[in-house]
Amino acid sequence: MNGDEGFVEEELLKRVPRWRNYLAAKLGFRNHWYPVRFSRDVPENVVLAVKLLGENILLKRVNGTVYGIKDRCIHRGVRFSHKIECYTRDTITCWYHGFTYKWDSGVLCDVIASPDTPIIGKRKVKSYPVREAKGLIFVFVGDDDFPVPDLSLDVPPMLLDEDMYVQGSSYPVKANWRLGCENGIDPLHIYIHRESRLVPNTQRSIPLGHRVNPHGGDNRILEEEEGKPKGVRSAEFREGQVSAYVPLYEGRVQGQVVVTSTKMHTTPEEAKFKRTTGDFIVLPGALRVDNFPYHGLYQFEWYVPVTEDSHLYIITIGKRCADEAERAEYDHAFWHRWKPESLEGFNNDDITAREALQPFYSKDRNWLEENLVREDQSIVKWREVCHRHARGIQLPKHVDP
Amino acid sequence: MNGDEGFVEEELLKRVPRWRNYLAAKLGFRNHWYPVRFSRDVPENVVLAVKLLGENILLKRVNGTVYGIKDRCIHRGVRFSHKIECYTRDTITCWYHGFTYKWDSGVLCDVIASPDTPIIGKRKVKSYPVREAKGLIFVFVGDDDFPVPDLSLDVPPMLLDEDMYVQGSSYPVKANWRLGCENGIDPLHIYIHRESRLVPNTQRSIPLGHRVNPHGGDNRILEEEEGKPKGVRSAEFREGQVSAYVPLYEGRVQGQVVVTSTKMHTTPEEAKFKRTTGDFIVLPGALRVDNFPYHGLYQFEWYVPVTEDSHLYIITIGKRCADEAERAEYDHAFWHRWKPESLEGFNNDDITAREALQPFYSKDRNWLEENLVREDQSIVKWREVCHRHARGIQLPKHVDP
Amino acid sequence: MNGDEGFVEEELLKRVPRWRNYLAAKLGFRNHWYPVRFSRDVPENVVLAVKLLGENILLKRVNGTVYGIKDRCIHRGVRFSHKIECYTRDTITCWYHGFTYKWDSGVLCDVIASPDTPIIGKRKVKSYPVREAKGLIFVFVGDDDFPVPDLSLDVPPMLLDEDMYVQGSSYPVKANWRLGCENGIDPLHIYIHRESRLVPNTQRSIPLGHRVNPHGGDNRILEEEEGKPKGVRSAEFREGQVSAYVPLYEGRVQGQVVVTSTKMHTTPEEAKFKRTTGDFIVLPGALRVDNFPYHGLYQFEWYVPVTEDSHLYIITIGKRCADEAERAEYDHAFWHRWKPESLEGFNNDDITAREALQPFYSKDRNWLEENLVREDQSIVKWREVCHRHARGIQLPKHVDP
Questions:
Q1: Which residues of B touch C78 (CB under 8 A)?
Q2: Can the peptide bond before residue B396 be classed as cis, meaning omega within 30 degrees of 0?
Q3: What stretch of H or E contains C381?
Q4: Cα four-point dihedral sign B50, B52, B55, B60
């Protein structure tokens, strides 16, 4: 595809006026912050090539600070990463004709093969704003003239709290990023986790689904306040709220119980302690799940667009730690318990589900052929919030060949 | 391709008004019966996934009857076959959210994760009419509101005769289904079979081609009578008809004999016995060849559309059998002689030829660039009969991603 | 792609009026001579299949003369090369129905399976003009009614000189043919060759690039004279001309020397002897480099379009030889020194560079996104000369499936 027309057909977009921008955002939302790798992946002086929203980006840490530039020489379009040449710490030189750029600004500072070239100092390769927080490297993929917003507007609340200590890992997924989001907040998909080894490991109950509580209120709250992250969260966060749903531990077909899941026997006091997890998803596609995988832990996860057909699933688990000793203890728990038991013993089922959704949703037209049920309102609300608050749509013209 | 426009360009279709529907039917004709597997492939309780005219279909035998449903949950489009869950004999449950459907009707009877879902009992997954005959499973691929015709209208005459006993096998071919049909009825393609091991094995003559008999009449009869299968057959079926062609056993280039084929010496009486084979092709693409591979046998074969680029070649050989002993004797002959010697020692050359045709005919435009000769009138007549009697065209909108 | 519209978008072509035909010629220029293989590759009676400008062509040497025909039967489009049948020396027979053609004219002379076919002697398969020169087989890819020009108009001057003795080899490259041309004449790309093993092997200096000589004139001469090859050559061919450029052996980044290349110490007399190489590129994409890889040698090389994404890089090195003894001596030098040291120890870096250019330039739109510098005027002039003198554009309609 050379241009932008026909990326998602106008005829389809018109049919979903309330979430048009979401349907259009096959490649993600432009002018947002995305985590792209862990800080540990970019030690000093290493050059790392990543793909983000279809753009090829090079990262390098220079004197502690990570910089990002487009992985494409402005001269004739070859990729620097074809053969990395960094003659000095703060520059990168194109292997083909010696065009040399500054890491911090992208400015063309020398052309080795032709030092008298008049455009030296006047042209630049695109550079990307980069921030590090909580052991993650965030990159802002946006237009050059777009005012870069604060990172805190694009991550779930609590992540940046000073005492929140985070560890994580990332997994490539062969599915569009929106299927990651929608699987993450799908209230019914718990059915696929019924045999997860996380359940016995954490002495927790895991329902198969739920029945409707006739006294329950709306269980999804829109967060659209100016100056804060925009998103959708579950109402369970509020004290005293009656849940809209009653968890279900027996599955029936034509009246007969055919499948059961694990229900721990708990006292009312324990039940209060083992409160239902809550979730909060914010633009551009970051979810916080409270009290998961265990009471007192917070799962923060991202569905980072890579191509139209793939995303990077970054999963982190945070814990409030007061000091180095607590952090060290949590490090051990994360790497030896939560990574194998939860990331790879529970969320791996989510990866499978998203990849199974991909063939259907890869045809744009099929987004209008789904048959959503009442519980999927959480997904519909998410789409609508995205439509209203996305800062831009990534288009083929932004994407590298 | 998201829509239907441009599937086959209108500009090309306009140029073949007499067989327009045939050129358009890259994916097959809709609202017809197709054999898809042998009965032996679907024992009780086995769930089998097949692709037919681009549609993914699941088959299951329940209490002896085979049912077919679309392999795609109505909720969010995942395939049931990703992970088959049949909690009861007559239902199938989607692995993702527990949507459960009845095999016999496709009706949604339960949603395990949300038993109060209002659409239970009101929505259904597409179900396909299925018939079994002569050891084959036939599926009707059509519109829900299309009156299902009798199977006998879509198979060659004689197949369903009570004493016709049939055995067969199937072979995947990387070529469009129409190239299967056209190779099957091509009067000149006999040239490729000249070294087939079937020929010495059956003491038969096999010509290289033919010369024109100036006293011969038209050798193709159109069958378009109301209430009967529609198709084209060779005139050799009629007694007393003078053949249009004289078989040729020596091939010449610039006057010199360069290649010969096998001609048995026969008395006139034997010659009458070893009459030329006759053929009869009917919509939607099923051929009967009489007295082939041997006197008294009937080859029935189908070119079943799978994708635009592939078909399933189902070859069966029928014999009229009066009782179980005759059937047992024929079973032995089929599996030990005709399958290796004919299906795999003769028709395998046809598979090779069709796959060699595919690159040229995969470009729609090239259907107008061929240079057909007089003998190819059998093919042209077949295209025209298809144009007049096809009940519908399979389009991309019918196809699963 | 079925038709020609949209091959290269009109909207893009309009934006480069001075080299529109060059941008359009993704598949090469039609009605030109191209070398396709070496004479040694086609001994008597061998049939060789090649692809040239997207067309599948068969070559056969009959009684010393090489003939070329389209590798596609006119009847139903299958390729002869699927199973070659040459019953007589000067004919080829299609394996499917016995259509038989003459190698020298392409005329259909027999149909083995139907000797009475009326089109015998009246129809033909496309035949291609073929010439052999300097151990290369040249094929003219053009329209049937286009007057075939003399081969000398499509090769660099000197190649066909009687005493010019040529040896060579060919290499497939996964890049468009135009990227081959542009790399070949790029004055700055010398930077990539700085570590080539050819340099120490030939006691030569190799600069990294150059500084501008303020007294230098224009260094590119357009050759557009009627009745001669059309192209662009470097001005160094003329005696007494002041070079526009001063070679540079030290590369600097921000003022510091970061890379150096090899500079031999030479007396002024030696310097005159070791004159700078000159180059001369002509349509349809053939380059001569004088005094390369050594004084007194002439490199002739071609970038022969195969598909949109690939070309055949034919490299030859010529030497003026007076007699058989000199030719034998040069044979030894070519195969034991120049092929390993220069073709595979220097030009292999050019292959790598072209393949690195391909992703960017494979998007037609990106031809308008490059940032050419002053030295790239040689490339721009080449594009413009091609625009003015190309005899035709190869289009998808000319290409075999």
A1: 353, 356-357, 360
A2: no
A3: helix C377-389
A4: negative
Q: How far is CA A131 from CA A28, A59, A66, C136, in A?
A: 19, 12, 8, 59
Class of domain B32-141: mainly beta
> Cβ contacts of residue C208 below 8 Å, gap of 6+?
A98, A112, A113, C190, C191, C194, C248, C249, C250, C251, C259, C260, C261
Cβ atoms of A100 and A92 within 8 Å: the answer is yes
| Among candidate residues B368, B372, B350, the one with its CA nearest the CA of residue B360 | B368
DSSP of B225-287, one letter per residue?
-TTS--EEEEGGGSTTPPPSEEEE-EEEETTEEEEE-------HHHHHHTPPPEEEEETTTEE
Extract the tokens encoding A197.
């080894």
Please report, for residues A62, A381, C2, C72, C75, the alpha-carbon distance to residue B371 in angstroms, rounded to integers and kept in the order given. 68, 59, 19, 12, 5
Residue A75: CB partners within 8 Å, gap ≥ 6? Answer: A94, A96, A97, A99, C370, C371, C372, C373
3-state class (DSSP) for residue A306: strand
Distance CA A386, CA A231 (A): 8
Tell me the nearest-neighbour CA distance from C61 into chain B, angstroms.
Answer: 19
Domains of chain B, residue spans: 32-141, 151-398
Asked if the model's pLDDT at residue B215 lies above 80, the reply is no
Across chain C, which distance is largest between two alpha carbons, in Å?
A: 83
List the structure tokens of A317: 């688990």
Is there a contact between B370 and C77 if contact means CB atoms under 8 Å apart?
yes
**DSSP per-residue letters across C45-109:** T-EEEEEETTEEEEEEEETTEEEEEESS-TTT---GGGS-B-SSTTEEE-TTT-EEEETTT-BEE
Here the ipTM equals: 0.93
pLDDT at A198 over 70: yes
Residue in C314, C374, C385, C370 with CA at minimum distance from that of residue C188: C374
Question: In C327-344, which positions are buried (b, 16+ CB within 10 angstroms) versus exposed (e)?
Answer: eeebeeebeebbbebbbb
Interface test with A, best of B95, B109, B112 (most A CBs within 10 A): B112
User: Would you place residue A2 in the very low, low, confident or very high pLDDT band (cuts 50, 70, 90)?
Assistant: very low
C-alpha A14/C-alpha B2 separation (Å) is 16
Chain B residue numbers with beta carbons less than 8 Å from the beta carbon of C118 are 374
What single DSSP character describes residue B4? S
Minimal Cα–Cα distance from B359 to chain C, Å? 6
Q: Could you tell me the fold of the domain covering B151-398?
A: Naphthalene 1,2-dioxygenase Alpha Subunit; Chain A, domain 1 (3.90.380)
DSSP A55-75: EEEEEEEETTEEEEEESS-TT
Angle between helices C377-389 and C177-184 (to 10 degrees): 130
Structure tokens belonging to residue C313: 């890089």
Residue A391 has pLDDT above 90, yes or no: yes
pLDDT digits (tens, 9 = 90+) for A212-226: 776 665 678 999 999
What gap in Å lies between CA B110 and CA B125, rounded to an integer?
Answer: 13
Query: Which among C8, C11, C360 is the top mutation candidate for probing chain A, defined by the most A β-carbons within 10 Å of its own β-carbon?
Result: C360
pLDDT of residue B235: 76
Question: In this complex, do C114 and B190 lie within 8 Å of one another by their Cβ atoms?
Answer: no
When pLDDT is averaged across residues C343-353 and rounded to a whole number, the result is 96
B107 chain-A contacts, CB cut-off 8 A: none
User: How many other C-beta atoms lie within 10 A of the C-beta of residue A203?
Assistant: 11
Residue at A288: amino acid letter = R
Mean pLDDT of C244-261: 91
C-alpha to C-alpha distance for C26 and B107, rounded to whole angstroms: 54
Q: Give the tokens for residue B128.
A: 């396909």
Q: Give the residue among A137, A132, A119, A112 at the shortest CA–CA distance from A58.
A: A137
Bridging pattern class, strands C164-173 and C310-320: antiparallel
Structure tokens given for A24 = 């259009």
